[in-house]
Amino acid sequence: MEMRAGEEDIEIGEDITPSVIPLSYALHDSFIHSHCSSCFSRLPSANFTQHHHVPTLLYCSSICSSSHFSPAELHLLHSPPSSDLRAALRLLPLSLPSSSTNRICGLLTNREKLMADEEISAHVRYGAKAIAAARRIEMVENEKNDAVLLEAALCLVLTNAVEVHDNEGRSIGIAVYGPNFSWINHSCSPNACYRSIISPPDNVLPFSDESRLRILPAGTESDNGVHNNIEFSKGCSGSGPRVIVRSIKRIKRGEEVTVAYTDLLQPKEISASNLASSSLSSELSFYRDEATRKLTDYVDEVTAEYLAVGDPESCCKKLENMLITGLLDEQLEVREGKSQLNFRLHALHHLALNTYTVLASAYKIRASDLFSLHSEVGGLPWEALSMSRISAAYSLLLATATYHLFCFESSLLVSVANFWTSAGESLLALAKSSAWDSLGKCGFPVLNLSPLAKHKCSKCSLLESFEVNLSFGQDHIRKAGFDSVSSRFLDCIGSLLQEVWGFLIQGDRYLKMFKDPTDFSWLGKSLDIWDFDAELTHNDVDFNCWTNKSVSGIEALGYTDQWRINTFQLGVHCLLYGGFLAGICYGPHSHWSSHIRSALNYEGK
């Protein structure tokens, strides 16, 4: 099955489906007490607090409660995790007799293939029995469960369900959509993306849902009759989280439309430092596979420990040491007589990007903890500000690294939009930190950041592009020119980075090897060990001088106003560019646009 563009070309940043209603859906168990089980909107805290320890399904309104399918769902809450089971249960009224369980509502159940796997088949049989037991609560006399049908419905959910994300990016449930969405195939270089729409039934949608279906099945006939005059279900009575598909590339008439089912930032390369001997290259693949496994396990272990124990300082030390020193082959099973290798993550490797994300979070937590500590004892939070700097630097490096990859694969547009937005938020949080204000207690100048409107950039006009994009959407994207907006943005942040980057990375051994976070050309010049003790760039200032009252320390603090202004301006640029890209991915009226306006204290139209 596949979907193709219809009778016209589709430009970048256009909705290519209306909001699609699900065939079935279910909240994850951990959200049934905080969100409406019908529309997935968040409940008032007073509503779910009293039911926190009681397995029940809650609703935000009488309209949503009327979509409660059966008491059997309550019974399934005692068989966690139950979201797959409850979604399968909701599919059963739409299902066909067991003789036709290869497809339900036009969707492949994949039952034969899944049941051939011993582990999966055991899960499916257990789930089908739980659904059967739940259905007996409301079955009429002499009615029987069709075991094959129950298995097929659950297999359909496992094959076709997608995660539903709320406005904060959390996966709160799953949904199964009809062929107009589910027949869109995966590609590692997709030309479209999709977004969830969560809204209470009595609320006006934050956009005008006038989009028409601009994609069609690949053919009108087929040997198995699937395409021929098929009747597609209308969904669950208009309830549930909807989905909209949107183009992220230009799609020609008749071209197949694809989306990504997985993370596109997959591992690409592990660099081995001293490979002078060509005899080693024949066995390099073996060592790379082993190194990849061990490095992945190590990062996962450190991250899990950080989340469980809550020791961000230990997490930062371990991960940065791994990035710097890599993995010596003494940690691997090296064959006798072979030279020692030193495996390190390439700076653009998928695992390195994940590590930057964890480090940005860990340094942010360290800053928060230190700031609270200094507030309690009445000290000056200079160290907390240092942690905030490095957190912002890792967020910025993550954005620039992903953008570098995006220049070679434009399908990474969604990831790039998210990372530029996060970098902008981190930089603005750093610039607005009250830790700066404490410097006034020492007689140093205190900066009052002016409103956003006074920080319009005449060079790139990003603020104007963001504002117009909110009003005119894809028409503005085409007229402004994506490449033109991106080029002007890079020129502007290049100038700002010359003033700010050295300040942000001071004191961090790993980050100091990136003299310019937008330039990755040096990565391909040599596989030699990097010199981490290289001299600082001309913008580096000893941030440790803040801890003393010497004349040199006071003179260094004289630069704080300009650092803070440049950091603020860089954050504004990153956030606006992230908003511009998000407008392409999600539309001008998405929650991302509202989120960015809020982060900027936006007071436009």
TrEMBL record:
Q: What is this protein identified as? A: Uncharacterized protein
